[in-house]
Amino acid sequence: MSELQPTKLSGIARPADVGAMLAEICEHFVEHSDVVHADGVATLKSQDWTIHIVAAEDVLQIEISTLGEEALAVTQTMFAEHLFYFAGDEPFSLEWSKPAAKVKPPGFHEATVVGVKDVTPRMRRVTLSVADVTPFLDRNMHVRLLVPPKDQTPVWPHLQENGRIGWPDELLVRIYTIRYVDAEARQISLDILQHPAEGVATPGADFARDSEIGQQVAIMGPGGGGLPAAQDIFFAGDESALPAIARMVEEAPSSMTMRAIIEVEDAGEEQPLRGLSPVHVEWLHRSSYSVGDAYVLVDRVKTALKDVEDETFVWFAGEKADVRTIKRHLAEKARDRRRQYVAWYWEKES
């Protein structure tokens, strides 16, 4: 097998505010890569890619470096999606020295539902069969689940020239954690939370509830997340984070020490967390809260952080407002952002 060769791609982004976008890029990617930013120049470096950005008048000059064309295509799409997200409703354009080919996005895999079962009353496991399970065996553990309308020929996404993904309007797209990978059976399992609420649409949960053996779907990925490289980890989150926490506990080496605070609806939603290293879990039951107790998880985590050492990796995921509160709290404590992962997995309806 030939060695992967260094590959590069350059691009020009035209945001409404060059300085503001560069600052937002660095603010976001500091939790996912090593970031060096000074005097309008930034370098983002992960184990898979390096992105060099220079602010020049009214444009951002971008250079992406990876090993191999496949990694380059994945990084191009990832970064393009982020830039358009950061731009929001403001004017923005992005051009590459080599426009993206109009093909299915990197990491696209068609899949078939082969199993459905309840893990707890509110957590449903959907098992998918894929032709090639190899990409899902690494540390990355999040995928996009793509669900076309039933009884229709699927229309799948394709790349646009600017690297963005063109999504068909009728396609349901949600992000989930890979809970298990069965390499021999070529299957992956996703744990999907059932969270019924009157007047609130829950299409992802509805898919898990109503999915049928043989149903055709697709997944894209994997990407993001994974067990942090640390000796000591403090996990916290609600049940949306439970699949990720459970998987990381299972993958942790025996030398790692772990503790967790997890909020679930009631005792029936607790799940055993088993691995080579024991983990102390404090379960919070939402059903036991008094009326108006909206911040029990956040308050408990903030209290627990008083006893967390600086060298401990802090991992928190959950509702968007809770995540913002924890991020602010960690910033006030001046914790090293390379020793934390704080991400929102869902957002309350306003």
Q: Can you characterise this structure?
A:
This protein is α+β, with helices and mostly antiparallel strands and 350 residues long. It contains six helices and 19 strands. It has a six-stranded antiparallel sheet, covered by helices on one side. A six-stranded antiparallel barrel has the order 7-8-13-12-9-14. Strand 12 (172-182) and strand 13 form a beta hairpin. 32% of the residues are buried. The model has no long low-confidence stretch (mean pLDDT 93).
Write a concise keyword list for the protein shown above.
TATA-Binding Protein; 350 residues; Elongation Factor Tu (Ef-tu), domain 3; 3 domains; 38% strand; six-stranded antiparallel beta sheet; Rossmann fold; globular; alpha+beta; 6 helices
CATH superfamily of the largest domain: Translation factors
User: For this entry, what is the oligomeric state of its chains?
Assistant: single chain
Summed over residues and divided by their number, the pLDDT gives a mean of 93
The CATH topology of the largest domain corresponds to Elongation Factor Tu (Ef-tu), domain 3
The biggest sheet amounts to:
6 strands, antiparallel
Structural class: alpha+beta
Number of strands: 19
Helicity level: 10-25%
Q: What's the CATH first level of the largest domain?
A: Mainly Beta
Number of domains in the coordinates?
Answer: 3
Strand content: 35-45%
Strand order of the largest sheet: 2-3-4-5-1-6
Q: Are there runs of 5+ residues with pLDDT below 50, and where?
A: none
Number of helices: 6
Shape: globular
Q: Rg, please?
A: 21 Å
